[in-house]
Design brief:
This protein may play a role in the biosynthesis of the prosthetic group of nitrogenase (FeMo cofactor). The chain has about 450 residues and is α/β, with parallel strands linked by helices. Helices cover about 40% and strands about 15% of the residues.
Length: about 450
């Protein structure tokens, strides 16, 4: 069990975390025909939009209520109402996901009541568009909590309540924010190979996978989980949540519909993937397909080929709690040591399971101070300056990654993703390995 060191600095030297509203917006981007709407100032939205566009290299339909000084003092309901009606008129989205920011939350507005009044006054104009509210103040939590709150809000607002007739082949999957577009696509492919039908919420592989609609401009998301699929989640026979931060939405789904859930803290590594495949075999009542067995054999070979490059290596990681756990367990499972672990928030229960002596809640400045002597730095693109100053190679994970192409098409989970991670890390280590000198092997040589 690792010790958790709270943040003691009054300001971030080199920020590590992204805000809750950004995490909620990212989740809403995984819904078909959706538009995330930031309820706050124009600057908050612009900053989040820049990060999303630079990370995905795609056009992102993110909008704002553009609260000004008067709205900040007197209340922003008028701005919220105007923004929703404008979006309905101009883009006719299937869903508007409202993400609150610190500007509106600090004032203490009753957003649920405001939205209820707006929907009641404009029931005819807003017909056919669902509006979902996620309370996500910037001053609390990070991208992980924002994603989870948005998914919880979607289930609470849209999923039909009560026990439903279960479809024996239907599985609800709640992926964590740290899964890439390629991870989610592989997850779907793996579940379908067992003859099962997955409903993934949210599904970024349908909306941010680098495709362009044919001969038309789409002002909303153009892929992802449909509103109807969210409404019918109660007909699933099983729910699978990936990451500790996805436990709350899974519990809400179970409470509202009775659908049982299984939680996987990580799907990276042989042991966790074996457990996942065993669950799919149990649900489908069929053995693992030949392609899955083949990929497992490939991972076993990669473990044999790669473990010599990991032994004794010191790794410094800075990431959100669940992603920190995902990669820390991967590295220690390969024989490396976690010499420094930094995260964004100390509230997650998964931090106590991180295989490190202690986890520091802080920023990239803390990581730089703790990472001296490490063999590899693992964090997002904002850690590149620290890596340069320390002379340590950087492995980019998480959000944002803006100085490399194809980050969303890298695999990190299941047999195939774990195999690719082994090769990627080993290829970073190999050019930086130094053959031992004779005097280092024989202390009496001189």
């Amino acid at each position: 069990m690792s010790g958790i060191l709270p943040q003691t600095k009054s300001s971030a030297v080199n920020p590590l975390k992204s805000s809750q509203p950004l995490g909620a917006a990212l989740a809403f981007l995984g819904i078909d025909g959706a538009i995330p709407l930031f309820h706050g100032s124009q600057g908050c939205t612009s900053f989040a939009l820049v990060l999303l566009v630079r990370h995905f290299k795609e056009a992102v339909p993110l909008q704002t209520t553009a609260m000004d000084e008067v709205a900040t003092i007197l209340g922003g309901m008028d701005h919220l109402e105007e923004a929703i009606l404008n979006l309905k008129t101009r883009t006719n989205p299937k869903l508007i996901g409202v993400c609150t920011t610190a500007l509106a939350e600090t004032r203490g507005e009753d957003f649920a009541r405001d939205l209820a009044n707006i929907k009641m006054m404009h029931a005819k104009e807003l017909a056919g568009t669902e509006i979902v509210l996620a309370n996500t103040p910037d001053f609390h939590g990070a991208i992980e909590e924002g994603w989870a709150r948005a998914v919880t809000a979607l289930i609470q607002r849209l999923t039909l309540r009560g026990e439903r007739v279960r479809q024996s082949k239907k599985i609800a999957i709640l992926p964590g924010w740290n899964l890439t577009v390629a991870d989610i696509a592989l997850l779907r492919e793996t579940v379908e190979s067992f003859g099962l039908k997955p409903v993934i919420l949210p599904d970024l592989s349908g909306s941010l996978d680098g495709t362009v609609p044919d001969d038309r401009w789409v002002p909303t998301t153009y892929g992802g989980t449909s509103v109807k699929d969210i409404q019918e989640l109660g007909t699933a026979v099983q729910c699978i949540a990936i990451g500790e931060h996805m436990r709350p939405p899974a519990e809400v789904l179970q409470r509202l519909t009775g659908v049982p859930y299984a939680l996987f803290h990580s799907l990276t590594g042989l042991k966790d993937t074996d457990r996942f495949v065993s669950l799919l075999s149990s649900i489908s009542r069929a053995p693992a397909p030949a392609i899955i067995r083949r990929r497992r054999a490939q991972l076993q070979d990669a473990l044999l080929d790669g473990h010599l490059h990991f032994g004794g290596k010191k790794i410094a990681i800075a990431a959100e709690p669940d992603q920190l756990y995902q990669f820390a367990t991967f590295f220690t499972g390969m024989g490396a040591e976690i010499s420094a672990a930094v995260t964004t928030t100390g509230t997650s229960k998964i931090l106590k399971k991180v295989p490190a002596e202690q986890v520091q809640v802080g920023d990239l400045g803390d990581l730089e101070g703790l990472a001296a002597g490490a063999d590899l730095l693992v964090t997002h693109s904002h850690g590149r300056q620290a890596a340069e100053r320390l002379g340590i190679p950087l492995m980019r994970i998480g959000f944002p990654i803006f100085d490399r192409l194809g980050s969303q098409h890298k695999l990190t989970i299941l047999y195939q993703g774990t195999r690719d991670l082994i090769f990627d890390v080993a290829n970073i280590f190999q050019p930086n390995q130094h053959a031992p000198r004779p005097e280092s092997l024989d202390p009496f040589r001189k």
